[in-house]
Amino acid sequence: MIVDLHTHTTASDGGLSPQELVSRAQQCGVQLLAVTDHDTVDGFRALADIDKGELEIIAGIELSCTWSGVNIHVLGLGIDVSCPRLQLELADQRNARGERARIIAERLEKLGFEGCYEGAANLAEGRAIGRPDFARYLLGAGYVDSMAAAFDKYLGAGKVGDVKAMWPSLESVVAWIKSAGGVAVMAHPLHYKLTNAKLRRMLAEFKEVGGEGIEVCNGRPSASDLNYLKQLCKDFEFEASAGSDFHQPSNWLELGCDAKVIEPCQPVWARWQRTELPA
């Protein structure tokens, strides 16, 4: 079985429209797909009337939050996108992203980069402005020679454009997900570059506030990373998830993960898997 429970569309910072994402997933043989845009369910909503064929699609979201001063991402899988509380919190989150974008723009303009907010807003085309939009603007304006350079110099972790203080707490976003009937899954646990002790402390707190899974496979992890995350999954009695974290077509990453990659962990997708889907 091929699954992918971590994907993005143009509703947030992805490069494909929701419809294009579904078409590509079908071409890649994906059987169970979650659309998990950043702080929005608009991408999933756009798929309401399309022909999904044999592809099963579940509603998802990727929420930003903070834990002990670290910017953390939590996936909400199997959510009710019409949940009133979730909708209210997402509106607040969108406002927070708007304020964050203004702060990033002000910081960049103090470095001599003019028109950053307007330029990024035009590229965002009505959705919440993200750091990739600023990177695209800096590239298009000739301030940097690549997207990677924009992040390395100005927008990446610890740089002037790394603004995260306004995100809600880990406990809060887990509560939002659970209020919408979803499952809270810690996204890419190794991306936060925490020590083993600190990562275990974070996962313990995540479990305590209602977290139920971790992303054991994100993209194309090494064997050692997979084994480490499987052990954490076992130690904390989490369910395991797998996703490509797909944003746009590339030569090094494609949609879909073999379900066997998380064995022997309990798969989170067992909650939604249709019985007729082949294992």
Describe what you observe in this structure:
One of its GO terms (molecular function) is 5'-3' DNA exonuclease activity. This is PHP domain-containing protein. InterPro entries: PHP_dom, PHP_domain, Pol/His_phosphatase_N, Pol/histidinol_Pase-like. The protein is an alpha/beta fold and 279 residues long. The chain folds into 2 domains: 2-85 and 169-271, TIM Barrel (Alpha-Beta Barrel), CATH 3.20.20.140; 90-155, DNA polymerase, domain 1. It is 38% helix and 16% strand. The protein has 9 helices and 8 strands. It has helices spanning 18-27, 42-45, 84-110, 116-124, 131-140, 147-155, 170-179, 196-208, 223-235; strands spanning 2-4, 32-35, 56-67, 70-77, 183-186, 213-218, 239-243, 257-258. An 8-stranded mixed beta sheet has the order 7-6-5-4-3-2-1-8. Helix 5 (131-140) packs across helix 6 (147-155). It is globular, with a radius of gyration of 18 Å. The relative contact order is 0.17.
Mean pLDDT: 93
Indicate how many domains the architecture comprises: 2
- Estimated share of beta-strand residues: 15-25%
- In this structure, how is the largest beta sheet organized? 8 strands, mixed
Helix content: 25-40%
Measured between the Cα atoms of the first and last residue, the distance is: 5 Å
Considering the protein shown, what is the CATH homologous superfamily of the largest domain?
Metal-dependent hydrolases
The dominant shape is globular
Q: Report the strand count.
A: 8
**Global Rg:** 18 Å
CATH architecture annotation name of the largest domain: Alpha-Beta Barrel
Q: Which regions are unreliable across 5 or more consecutive residues at pLDDT < 50? A: 275-279
